[in-house]
Design goal:
Distance between the termini of chain A: 77 Å
Number of strands of chain B: 0
CATH topology of the largest domain in chain B: Cytochrome Bc1 Complex, Chain C
Number of helices of chain A: 1
Number of strands of chain A: 10
Shape of chain A: elongated
Largest interface: A-B, 8 and 11 residues
Low-confidence stretches of chain A: 1-5
Oligomer: heterodimer
CATH superfamily of the largest domain in chain A: Rieske [2Fe-2S] iron-sulphur domain
Largest sheet of chain B: none
Order of helices and strands of chain B: HHHHHHHHHH
CATH architecture of the largest domain in chain A: 3-layer Sandwich
Strand content of chain B: under 5%
Mean pLDDT of chain A: 86
Strand order of the largest sheet of chain A: 1-10-9-4-3-2
Low-confidence stretches of chain B: none
Number of domains of chain A: 2
Helix content of chain B: 55-70%
Chain lengths: ~160, ~230
């Protein structure tokens, strides 16, 4: 091919038109690509789930839990650890470890709250006392109405 | 090398390593299509093989993304399909296009086969093109039917029951075959999981036959006008 007088050559006087067509084609290709990629991205986005707002939760009668025991309850979409201390008091904390989101448990043998993932420990006030957790557990409130134990969270 | 598109930087380097524009020119851009001769060429009937492949690609893409939400379990399948239809963003679009394109693919397959048959394009030296194409027809039917069973609604369930039962009319091996495809004596959750697996295995196997089908056509060229 002789490139000096070929229409597509850079020296050609038709260069402007050819470039314009190239941009047009490139632009159309980009638009086409977006029209495919965007719906796929949108499809993969997790659909919004209507969350049920929970402001308080009955966890049972006062005598239901043994002293020095704990149990995990579902407070809306979040796990909450309810602990009954040796003295018989109830306490509630977010059960999500502040380190890497594992679920903590009450350990009777330690008398502490324990995270099995990386040996993190919290005392019964939710303070991080040993291991990797960087912050204390979030507190939930306990109310006892009659003999019903209720967990609730301050709205603030 | 004259044809290699002169691009700058990364594109040129990539192109040099992969030889994409060279391949594109040799196989697509500089390849001349035979001029239309007969009315069926003018009517575009020669496009239906390519259209079928286009649908195959669309089915693969939409199907792969439906996998993200579909749950092949008898308790969950129907609910997950309803979830796709009513909650997933554009879920209805992906599911309906997967279903509609499967029907359109059957139509294009049949038109493609009719055209090849009535124009005699299957004749020597293209016998194996027809044979591989027929195998592809069976795979397409298989993919459509296994897909039909996956929503696990009444239609799916009874279609599955009736169609698998019809295999029992095959002499000698019929009853064994029914049990084989059902994964047991009756249509159960095991059958659903099997058909889900078949629905994935079939297209993968199909790809091998498709590549063979295309390679043959490239080798012999398309049938000359009669």
């Amino acid at each position: 091919m002789n490139s000096s007088n070929h229409i597509g050559s850079p020296e050609s006087p038709k260069k402007g038109r050819r470039e314009f067509i190239n941009y047009l084609l490139g632009g159309s290709f980009a638009a086409w690509l977006i029209s495919i990629v965007y719906p796929i991205y949108h499809f993969l986005e997790p659909p919004k789930v209507e969350e049920v707002k929970v402001s308080n939760l009955k966890v049972g009668k006062v005598g239901d839990m043994e002293k020095e025991s704990g149990k995990i309850v579902k407070f809306g979409s979040k796990p909450v650890l309810v602990v009954r201390t040796a003295a018989g008091d109830y306490k509630a904390f977010s059960a999500t470890c502040t380190h890497l989101d594992c679920i903590v448990q009450y350990r009777k043998d330690y008398g502490q709250i324990y995270c099995a993932c990386h040996n993190g420990r919290y005392d019964l006030n939710g303070r991080n006392i040993s291991g990797p957790p960087p912050a204390p557990l979030a507190k939930y409130n306990i109310a006892i109405k009659g003999d019903e134990v209720i967990v609730f969270k301050d709205e603030s | 090398m004259e044809n290699v598109v002169k691009k700058k930087g990364y594109f040129r380097e990539l192109d040099k390593s992969l030889g994409i524009s060279e391949l594109l020119h040799a196989e697509v851009i500089d390849k001349t299509a035979p001029a239309p001769v007969h009315w069926w060429d003018h009517a575009g009937l020669s496009c239906f093989g390519g259209l079928t492949f286009l649908f195959f690609i669309m089915q693969t893409v939409s199907g792969l993304f439906l996998l993200v939400y579909y749950q092949p379990h008898p308790d969950e399948a129907y609910a997950s399909v309803q979830y796709i239809d009513s909650y997933v963003n554009l879920g209805w679009f992906f599911r309906r296009s997967h279903a509609i394109c499967s029907n359109l693919m059957m139509i294009t397959v049949i038109i493609h086969m009719l055209k090849v048959f009535f124009t005699g394009a299957y004749k020597k030296p293209r016998e194996m093109h027809w044979v591989s194409g027929f195998v592809l027809l069976l795979f397409t039917l298989g993919a459509c039917f296994t897909g039909y069973c996956l929503p696990w609604n009444q239609m799916s369930f009874w279609a599955l029951t009736v169609v698998t039962n019809s295999l029992s009319s095959i002499p000698f091996i019929g009853t064994y075959l029914v049990e084989f495809v059902r994964g047991g004596e009756n249509v159960t959750g095991v059958t659903l999981l099997r058909f889900f697996a078949f629905h994935l295995i079939i297209p993968v196997t199909m790809l091998i036959f498709l590549l063979a089908h295309f390679y043959m056509i490239r080798k012999t060229g398309i049938s000359e006008p009669l």
